[in-house]
Amino acid sequence: MLKVRVIPTLLWKQFGLVKGVGFDSWRRVGPVLPAIKVYNQREVDELILVDILAHRSDEELDYESIDEFGQDCFVPLTVGGGITRIEQVQRLLRAGADKVSINTAAYSFPGLVTEIAKRHGVQCVVASIDVRAVDKGKWSCYSHAGTEETGREVVAWARELEDRGAGEILVTSIERDGTMQGYDIPLIETLVNAVKVPVIASGGAGNYHHLVEAVQKAGASAVAAASMFHFTEQTPAGAKAALAEAGIPVRKTFRPNEGD
Amino acid sequence: MKVGVIDYGVGNLGSVLRTLEELRVAPVLVNRAIDMHANDCLILPGVGNFADCARLLESGGWVQALRDDVLGYNRPLLGVCVGMQLLADVSMEGLDETQQGTPGLGFISGKVEHLRTLGCPHRVPHVGWNSIQRAEAQDGLFDGIPDGTDFYFVHSYAFVPRNPSDVLATVDYGIPVTAAVRKGNVWGTQFHPEKSSRAGFRLLSNFISGPAC
After folding, report:
1. How do B176-183 and B150-155 pair as beta strands?
2. Is B194 a catalytic residue?
3. B113 is catalytic
4. Tally of structural domains, chain B
5. Which of A15-19, A92-96, B65-69 has the highest mean pLDDT?
6. Which fold has domain A5-245?
7. Domain range holding B7?
């Protein structure tokens, strides 16, 4: 049976990990590499690593850092931030990324999603959508780390990204981000019903119960969280235990069978 | 022990190399078909589109070299993900059933089909950790790896070998899906051992140190 994934999201800015509230008021969390090492030793299901400033810069992506971060990562690593060209994807995959997440660039060059999917497969493209609620049951999409309104409505945009070749949709509620008040459940449920690819819930997780809700009420295939892992004593392992207790399938730790 | 990783222009090579290094193996990135024979065993990675991978294998001279080396000299080969699918006779990726499929290496007879064509009722791609069920036949590749072990999968197409005895393990995704295959000195896994943490380390070290190599 396919397991629900618990995915720590690591936001990275210049030299370290940060975490904000509502995509603002960034707090320093600590260095990137030890965090990845610890998560890897604790066998998290997957990691998402996003350079939150990369979209602002004309400079090339920081492949050297990605290469270093990937050094100790033996679970799937999704890398995002500032990706605008197919050549960058090839280099990221060589540097140790397994998937890339595309957000801002998709609004101006939606063909990029198709190009990556064609070249590297749909499983390689995670389409990341940042939204704010505009009305009951309506959400509007924002680019450039939540700073620019795009005029796109989330359901239509998610469907377009799916049609263009996105293999997963990562949806983040900007208003819930960093609040630890719980995911925007109607948002996630709306997207789960709108697309046929897996949906990763993001933005607002503060406790294990929120993760259970995203799966049981909204149907998320995976749950991403940052603040609750950075700033509370809750851990991915604890999250998986709580999901399991709620009857949700989670990955078991590998136990070799030496008598085999 | 020299483990050659075939670099034909696709794949998450960084991840594969790193995992081998973690196993204290110094992997060799083989980027010319002519250098293939200098290795004790070979890993054929692959992500992405089957037809693109097949074309790159062909244009790089890899198809003939693999035939000579793997079929002719019995060098052990492990195909991973699309690398496993490439072992098949043919893939229907991106094509409809009225069209002719894209030819693969044909090392293990069978066809690669979309999960939906095979009747899968769930979300595609099949992404995440899923538990494998071993076939009855014992194989060194799964030494110490019990039934029900979770591996990381990410794919939309699946390999259906013509001969069911070539299947080493399956995974349940609404339908039984081929998770691992073997025929003679050729192995393949649909999941990514290099991204499956300790379970993956074990499988790769079985391939490298076990009866395979």
Report:
1. unpaired
2. yes
3. no
4. 1
5. B65-69
6. TIM Barrel (3.20.20)
7. 3-209
Which CATH number do you get for residue B135?
Answer: 3.40.50.880
Where are the alpha helices (H) located in B111-194, listed in sequence order? Answer: none
User: Cα A250 to the chain's mean position, in Å?
Assistant: 18
Other residues' Cβ atoms within 10 Å of the Cβ of residue B71: 16
Of A2, A70, A254, the CB nearest to B198: A254
Every domain of chain A and the residues it spans: 5-245
What pLDDT digit, counting tens, does each position of A135-191 carry? Answer: 889 999 999 999 999 999 999 999 999 999 999 999 999 999 999 999 999 999 999
CB burial of residue A186 (10 Å; 0-12, 13-18, 19+):
middle
Q: What is the pTM assigned to this prediction?
A: 0.94
Q: Which of B173, B197, B204, B205 to mutate to test the interface with A (most CBs of A within 10 A)?
A: B197
Residues of A in contact with B200 (CB under 8 A): 74
Task: Pick the residue of B127, B175, B206 with the most A CBs within 10 A to test the interface with A by mutation.
Answer: B127
Return the structure tokens found at A147: 């700073």
Q: What is the ipTM of this complex?
A: 0.92
Output the CA angle B189-B194-B198, nearest 5 degrees: 105
At residue B200's C-alpha, the angle toward residues A128 and B118, to 5°, is 65
Comparison of pLDDT for A211 and B99, the residue scoring more = A211
A 10 A CB-CB count for B32 gives 11
Q: Which of B53, B114, B194, B213 is catalytic?
A: B194
- Known catalytic membership, residue B192: yes
CB contact residues (below 8 A), chain B span 132-151, against chain A: 142-146, 148-150
Q: Would you give the DSSP letter of residue B210?
A: S
3-class secondary-structure state, position A15? coil
Higher-pLDDT residue of A224, A93: A224
Q: Minimal CA–CA distance to A126: which of A95, A158, A156, A153? A: A158
CA neighbor of A41 nearest in space, from A236, A187, A224, A245: A236
Assess contact for A209 and A229: CB atoms under 8 A: no
Read off the amino acid at residue A255. Answer: R
- Whole-angstrom Cα distance, residue A202 to residue A197? 16
| Chain B CA closest to residue A72 | B18
Paired with A90 in beta bridges are none
Mean pLDDT of chain A: 93
> Cα(B126)–Cα(B124) distance, rounded to whole angstroms?
5
| DSSP symbol at A254 | P
Tell me which residue of A76, A133, A68 sits closest to A95, measured CA to CA.
A68
H-helix or E-strand containing A160? helix A154-164
- All residues at 6 or more sequence positions from A245 whose CB lies less than 8 Å from its CB, including other chains: none
Q: Write out pLDDT tens, residues A69-104.
A: 888 888 999 999 999 999 999 899 888 888 999 999
